[in-house]
Amino acid sequence: MVHFVAESWRPLQRNIQIENICTIPGIGELTAVIILAETNGFELIRSKRQLTSYAGLDVKEKQSGTSVKGKPRISKSGNRHLRKAMHLPALAAVKWDDNFRDLYLPQNY
Description:
Blueprint: H1 2-13, H2 16-22, H3 29-38, H4 48-55, E1 59-60, E2 63-64, E3 68-69, E4 73-74, H5 80-96, H6 98-104
């Protein structure tokens, strides 16, 4: 059984899309495969905004009337498997990549 799984990974390792996705900081082969599987190879995704919304990572602001305003949060209305696959790579990118760290952390930190 293990030999069969190892053999089935070999064609995937040579896939150009997987190699391109793996160049993003924090993303490995398994995460790249999950992203491609959940987005159907990006066939229907046309923009960054559409991908963000599909994953449920778009910002939702809670507002009631004119004075009560909640903290902005992600909507979580999209694909939970894609959102779950992107969580740890995002944390790793913030930890190890200065560009992502500057975007994520507050300026006075």
